[in-house]
């Protein structure tokens, strides 16, 4: 997320977490948008805090790719991030260092086959969540779905988020997927009108369907 009005609208859809990308090479980088922490504070103070993202009961996730621990900690303090999502080649030691300093960590892994799950074991106890995304040649997502059945091989203790190609037509597939460590789903390009801009109606309709699933159980 990076555009003020879109942020406000999406925050009202019932999501739990909102992501902000701090990776300059991403088309969705916060640097390419109009939202800054300073502008938000000014806007919220002038408008009785009706706009401010800080008023919504959701977690703020900062997405990083191979940033240094100092860079991530500085950004986390500035933007009041609740989670640091590491989407690059960050080592278990880097995750451990941040985790020991009190930062909540999401470590992303690119998955295509069961073999891709093997490195995950090295990060046990060093992250609060894992994120399993579709394997591709670049950092970040491909907008395509991987074969979720390979996750049956994941026997770790860390809960995970499911990512990669989830779109408005994925409801039935999600209903049919289960794993004891599944904690949530990551929604991004499948709900965009352009990079960084979310289709609010598609998101709200999808979220309502997913939440209805919970009430049916």
From TrEMBL:
Q: What is its EC number?
A: 5.3.1.24
Q: Which reaction does it catalyse?
A: N-(5-phospho-beta-D-ribosyl)anthranilate = 1-(2-carboxyphenylamino)-1-deoxy-D-ribulose 5-phosphate
| InterPro entries in UniProt | Aldolase_TIM (IPR013785), PRAI_dom (IPR001240), RibuloseP-bd_barrel (IPR011060), TrpF_fam (IPR044643)
Tell me the Gene Ontology biological-process terms attached to this UniProt entry: L-tryptophan biosynthetic process
Named from the GO MF annotations, one term is: phosphoribosylanthranilate isomerase activity
Short name of one Pfam family: PRAI
Q: Give start and end of each N-(5'phosphoribosyl) anthranilate isomerase (PRAI) domain.
A: 39-208
Q: Which UniProt keywords apply?
A: Amino-acid biosynthesis, Aromatic amino acid biosynthesis, Isomerase, Tryptophan biosynthesis
Instruction: Return the broad EC class.
Output: isomerase
Give the metabolic or biological pathway: Amino-acid biosynthesis; L-tryptophan biosynthesis; L-tryptophan from chorismate: step 3/5
Concerning its family, UniProt says:
Belongs to the TrpF family.
Q: What is this protein called?
A: N-(5'-phosphoribosyl)anthranilate isomerase
What organism is recorded for this protein?
A: Parabacteroides goldsteinii dnLKV18
Give the gene symbol: trpF
């Amino acid at each position: 997320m990076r555009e003020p009005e879109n942020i406000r609208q999406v925050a009202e859809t019932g999501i739990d977490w909102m992501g902000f990308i701090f990776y300059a090479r991403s088309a969705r980088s916060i640097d390419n948008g109009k939202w800054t922490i300073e502008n938000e504070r000014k806007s919220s103070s002038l408008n009785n805090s009706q706009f401010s993202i800080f008023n919504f009961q959701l977690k703020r996730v900062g997405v990083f790719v191979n940033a240094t621990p100092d860079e991530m900690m500085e950004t986390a303090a500035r933007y009041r991030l609740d989670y640091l999502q590491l989407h690059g080649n960050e080592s278990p030691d880097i995750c451990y260092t941040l985790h020991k300093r009190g930062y909540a960590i999401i470590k992303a892994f690119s998955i295509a086959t069961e073999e891709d799950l093997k490195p995950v074991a090295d990060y046990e106890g060093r992250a609060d969540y894992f994120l399993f995304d579709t394997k591709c040649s670049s950092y970040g997502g491909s907008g395509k779905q991987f074969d979720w059945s390979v996750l049956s091989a994941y026997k770790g203790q860390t809960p995970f988020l499911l990512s990669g190609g989830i779109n408005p037509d994925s409801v039935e597939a999600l209903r049919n997927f289960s794993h004891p460590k599944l904690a949530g789903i990551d929604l991004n390009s499948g709900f965009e009108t352009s990079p960084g801009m979310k289709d609010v109606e598609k998101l709200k309709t999808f979220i309502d369907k997913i939440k209805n699933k919970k009430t049916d159980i």
